[in-house]
Amino acid sequence: MEKKQRSRRGRFSLSTLTSLLLVIASYFTSTTVLFASTLPKHDVEKEPTTWRFGLEEIEGSLQHIYAKAFKKRIEEKTQGAIDVDIYSYGTLGESEDLTNLTAQGTVQLAHASTGILGKRIPEMQVFTLPYLLSHDGQRNKRILSSNSTLYGVLGNALIDQNLRLLTLYSEGDMVWTTNELIRHPRDFDAFKMRVMSAPLNIDTFRLYGADPVSLPYSEIYSALQSYRVDGQSNPIFAIEEMRFYEVTDYMIWSGQQKFITSIIANQAWYLRLPADQKKALRSTITEMTDIIHERQEALNHSQLNTIKREKPDMVMLTLNSQQKRAFKQRAKPVREKYIEMTGKQGKRLLEALEKAFDTGP
């Protein structure tokens, strides 16, 4: 708990200082490279190039597992010419800060959850729409990693922000942890639900009848503990790692969403990569698709067992099809709002995904 209970001021100061140092390091790296170009070739080829990889999650998380496996493969494929530095959650600030640092080029690679990116790129909010993805994990994996319409629409939108979409993957079911039993939209009456800051996600829970509250990830535990919020939604591994189960009584599988994250890169940096490094990056991203899918399933299963062991009186339930249908009906206006917000491109993307996932209205 010590990590979570540290003062926000101290954590912010550390992350701000780290970000500043990275900006300074980026400047001096560029200057050093310019100077080094005038030196004899054998004197400058010994130093590896650093790729900075930022995470939205803590050490030991699924994103950290991804980053470590990615680092190992890149460094092996480039025979040490590339050194991947991993920055866990909090080191560089909140998720929004990480995306900004990637767009600026201070960080070359980053995880970026679609809920966070949705504030910057409206089309990305398609993944906040309830009951869009299928219940077939293999099908979801295939579509998220390779659907041409998905990468066309979202890829172009990200390029406009000097970002490049490398891949998307699921971190598992979004599970509600609450202090009250929720089985029907009416149970959300006067219920304060912590939600991600994507506008359509907020609208969804408001339509359910809840009072949505947007808070940084680092503040969720204390908000639950102090009853500032009555519940929250996250994948199982996050619920265990951040110990949200300690301060809630119910875990509810609503089937509403999967937690979808992306790997993004600085677009200008990506375009400047030498051909061999770009090839290593692309092949590693492809290899990681199956690896992270298997790790995600194993990690969520393992950490659910940990929760059961640590809190045996935790009530766990899955909504039945009739209960899910009630929530899906309540949230229908969000689909139309997404189309209004994103226009023809957003509509094309949504319809393509509904067809691919077989989850249309």
From TrEMBL:
Source domain of life: Bacteria
Stored Pfam families: DctP
Ranges that cross the membrane: none
InterPro entries: DctP_fam (IPR018389), TRAP_DctP_sf (IPR038404)
Keywords: Signal, Transport
Gene Ontology BP, a term: transmembrane transport
Signal sequence region: none
Annotated family: Belongs to the bacterial solute-binding protein 7 family.
NCBIfam families reported for this sequence: TRAP_S1
Name this polypeptide is given: TRAP-type C4-dicarboxylate transport system, substrate-binding protein
